[in-house]
Every structure is written in C-alpha cells, then in structure tokens.
Amino acid sequence: MGLPARSQDPYRVPHASYAILEKTVGGWNASLHRVGYDWNAAARQARNLGREDWARGIATGRMV
Q1: Spatial CA neighbour of 14 closest among 30, 44, 38
Q2: pTM (predicted TM-score)
Q3: Which one of 17, 29, 39, 42 is at 20 to 30 Å from 5 when CA atoms are compared?
Q4: Of 12, 16, 7, residue with least CA distance to 62
Q5: Residue 52 · residue 60 · CB < 8 Å
Q6: Geometric angle at alpha carbon 44, from 43 and 50, rounded to 5°
C-alpha cells in the first residue's frame, strides 16, 4: 500500500505509478505507467485493518 494523493495539494497526486523494465538484445527498455488510485478506499481498508496511522497518511498524503 502506497501513499496516494489529491492533485490540489502539491504533495499529493491522483494516481499511482510504476515502471516495467525489460531486458532486450540491445540493453534495457523501460516503460512508465500511471493508473488511477482510489485513495478513499485505500484509507478505509487501512482503517479496517487497524492502521489508523496509514489511513491518515493515505487520506492526507502526509505521514506524521
């Protein structure tokens, strides 16, 4: 679980990102991907698992 964010806050973005690295005959190829992230659902899941600290961080984009 990461720390997603909202776009109106400079520390938060509304997507998750990942990279895929593939070894090719000539070296390496990297592709970057962004996907939507339901940070409200992630915060609820963290809260349901007893991780209020993570839920707060996910909801606000800041870990205390």
Answers
A1: 38
A2: 0.54
A3: 29
A4: 12
A5: no
A6: 90
DSSP secondary structure of 20-46 = EEEEETTEEEEEEEEEE--HHHHHHHH
Residue 42 CB neighbour total at 10 angstroms: 19
- Token pair of 5, please? 């964010």
Q: Which residues pair with 17 in a beta bridge?
A: 34
List the chain pLDDT tens, one digit each, 64 residues: 455 544 455 455 567 789 999 999 999 999 999 888 788 888 899 999 999 988 888 887 777 6
Structure tokens at 46: 């963290």
Look up residue 56 and give its two tokens. 């707060």
- Written as six digits, the tokens of 50 are 């007893």
